[in-house]
Amino acid sequence: MTLPPRHRHRLFAAVVVIVAGLLGHPPVTTGQVLPSEPISVAAGRLVISAEVSASTAAKDDAYLNQSDYGQNALRRLALGVTSALSLGARVSVLADVRTESGQPFLVHAAFVRVRPWATRPIDLQAGRIPPTFGAFARRGYGLGNPLIGLPLPYQYLTSLRADALPANTDDLLSMRGRGWRLSYPIGAQTQDPGVPLMSALRWDTGLQVRVGDRPVAIVGAITTGSLSNPLVRDDNGGKQIAVRAAFQPSAGLLFGVSAARAEFVSRVVRDALPPGATPHMTQSGLGADLEYSRDHWLVRVEGILSSWRLPTVAAPLLDTPLRALGITAEGQYKVRPGFYLAGRADHIGFSSIRGTLFEGRPTPWDVPVTRLEVGGGYYVRQNVLAKLAYQHNWRDNVRDRRTRFVAAQLSYWF
Amino acid sequence: MPTPLARIVPWMVCGMAVAAGTPCGAQTGVGVGVGVIKGQVDLPREVAPVARRPDIRGLGMPPPRPEATRRRSVVYLETAPGEAFEHGNEPRTLIDQRRETFVPHVVAVTTGTEVDFPNSDETYHNVFSLSRVRSFDLGRYASGRSRSVRFDHPGIIRVFCDIHSHMSAFVLVFTHRFFAVTDDEGRYRIEGVPPGTYTVVRWHELFEPQTRSVEVPSDGGEVEVSF
User: Fold this and answer.
1) Would you state the CATH architecture of domain A5-413?
2) What is the pLDDT of residues A139-162, one digit of tens each?
3) Cβ A47–B51 below 8 Å, yes or no?
């Protein structure tokens, strides 16, 4: 269930009023009556924190900010509660439950973390675990994001689905730029959203091992889903293998490379394919990320190259992997205490295919999209952050639809 | 209940009076001795250390960190005799950043004090404060480096690290020198107090301030005031 837009705006206004009202009665030294620190119980064994974030912007009828979580990233009310239960110095259980814009609470993460040897930097995590691949998905939904929108490679919905496939290139080309709602003849006969290059909002399920810490850390994971389509329960009998190596030569510089490969399409598609279709319909990903910070500057650059290998069923044949390259660059500068400016530029490009549409010319299988978002944040309190951002999108097939947005967000956490 | 800012207003007024050459604050006696105010602070309840926010996005166990004691209070004279405002050299102190903890958690200084914030960790730290009395942001700096802040106005300044949200500290700035930070057992000792009648305040970050009235006799000596 999703709240109607009118009610969402009222809810946003209510959150603003409540937070402002509560901040108006400063007790002792914290300056606010809302908690400012995590709640610690059972002598510190159980720690609970929470984050609430309300964002508002004009309606996005081109669905440029629609995420695979079913929400517009610029118009959402999110509440997340995170807990950590310590079972000694080397074992802990962590969980994160989240609700978005009036929908029911969902388990976003739930895993056990084990350090088998006290003196060796080896850690195991099992359950619904943090993403191994890339950098942004582990930075946090609201607090780790200096702006309001999400980076395109982690949010923008392409015209691919894991539970429905085009029969030929024309099917795919006819759905260009319609990732928010599309249908294909093979597999699920519904109209549903496509998938991003990598999901930032849904986490995969499996086992993860980290070896080392600084200056070199290697992480490997085996999980049930794929970069685009993380899962709780396996739906195709395949497993994803993901690895990441991070090199941190100094405190302010981090360079990471990632790779992943997984069976992509679901069983409902496999069952619908004719006998003899290719047995492996995979998503492969390569990623590189760089973070540099110093003084009041923070710069991040990240690139993801994703490749989907899909079956060929009918002419015109889909005989090459479908590739997409997403690049995002982000900068943040603190102008004065409590106030920063930030900007981000994103682009996703797609490999070309040929069908009978577009006069048979090689055509990107989805419409390239570019985004520029600039804005700033002001800390009303140490744990209350107000953001304002302006976002401009460029996509060829957007006609008479809004591509520019002004968005505001208020976040509180403890 | 007065807010912390309301409590420091008398110090500021007092400071201005001293600048004008007028004896200020306490009713100072005529005796020649100086006294000591000492005592014990027992907090209303056990104080847990600051917990780390659950590191749900980490790929492994976070490094262990010492539990910053939050048992320490600051005891000070609400108003002080005129000679208390005569500072000599410009003092300096430090708050270290060690294993993602500010050490010590509470410092009390006089106005004009320069506080150094060295980074003794291998990771970056970014010390900042949004306090109205003194807001600052030292930016990110690496291990072995130090940056400093000068505190010229009295008040309570809460300090954080922008990278590690579980790190926090307090700097209490006074216009006079009659204050003390309690030790781990809650003991404190304020020395060199001229004879007179004073209001002694116990400050702790989690509790409302408590006050006691005390008289230092004209021949000096030790006066016990506990909270």
Assistant:
1) Beta Barrel (2.40)
2) 866 678 999 999 999 999 999 999
3) yes
Q: Is B53 on the interface with A (CB under 8 A)?
A: yes
Amino acid at A198: M
CB contact under 8 A, B52 and A381: no
| Banded pLDDT at A385 (limits 50, 70, 90) | very high
CB B38 within 8 A of CB B190: yes
| CB interface of A with B, residues 295-354, below 8 Å | 295-296, 298, 334, 336-338
Over residues B19-28, mean pLDDT? 37
Q: Tell me if A382 and B124 make a contact (CB, 8 A cut-off).
A: no
DSSP H or E segment with residue A7: helix A5-23
A135 vs A109: CA distance, rounded Å: 17
Tokens coding B181 = 């930070």
pLDDT-derived band of residue A12, with 50, 70 and 90 as boundaries?
low
E-state strands within A317-383: 322-336, 339-350, 352-353, 363-364, 369-381
Shared-domain flag, residues B200 and B157: no
In a domain, B200, yes or no: yes
Q: In this structure, are B94 and B77 located in the same domain?
A: no
Residue B66 placed within a domain = no
| Partner-chain residue, chosen from A121, A138, A338, that has the shortest CB–CB distance to B57 | A138
Q: Mean pLDDT, to the nearest integer, of A314-327?
A: 92
pTM as predicted = 0.86
A9 pLDDT tier (thresholds 50, 70, 90): low
B126-147 CB burial, b ≥16 within 10 A, e <16:
bbbbbbebbebbbbbbeeeeeb
Chain B residues near residue A139 by CB distance under 8 angstroms: 57
Residues of chain A neighbouring B142 (CB-CB closer than 8 A): 250-252
* B122/B194 same-domain check: no
In degrees, to the nearest 5, what angle opens at C-alpha B191 toward C-alphas B117 and B96?
10
Residue A216 has pLDDT above 90, yes or no: yes
% of chain A exceeding 70 in pLDDT = 90
Q: Which residues lie below 8 Å from residue B167, measured CB to CB, with a gap of 6+?
A: B50, B97, B100, B101, B102, B125, B160, B161
Residue B57 domain-assigned? no
Confidence band, pLDDT 50/70/90 cuts, at residue B66: low
The residue among B176, B195, B219 that closes a domain is: B176
In this structure, what CATH number is given to the domain that contains residue B219? 2.60.40.1120
DSSP letter at B9 equals H
Overall average pLDDT of the B90-102 stretch: 91
Domain range for B102: 88-176
Q: Considering its fold, how many domains does chain B have in total?
A: 2
pLDDT in tens, A149-204: 999 999 999 999 999 999 999 999 999 999 999 999 999 999 999 999 999 889 99
Asked if residue B161 and residue B193 are part of one domain, the reply reads: no
pLDDT of residue B5: 41
Classify residue B201: in a domain, yes or no.
Answer: yes
B83: DSSP letter: G
Domain segments of chain A: what residues?
Answer: 5-413
Interface check for A67 against chain B (CB to CB < 8 A): the answer is no
Record the tokens describing residue A172, joined without a space: 């795919």
Q: How far are the Cα atoms of A86, A96, A349, B57 from residue A46, in angstroms, in the given order?
A: 6, 13, 45, 17
pLDDT band at B174 (very low <50, low <70, confident <90, very high): very high
B166: CATH: 2.60.40.420
Looking at the fold, whether B76 and B94 belong to one and the same domain comes out as no
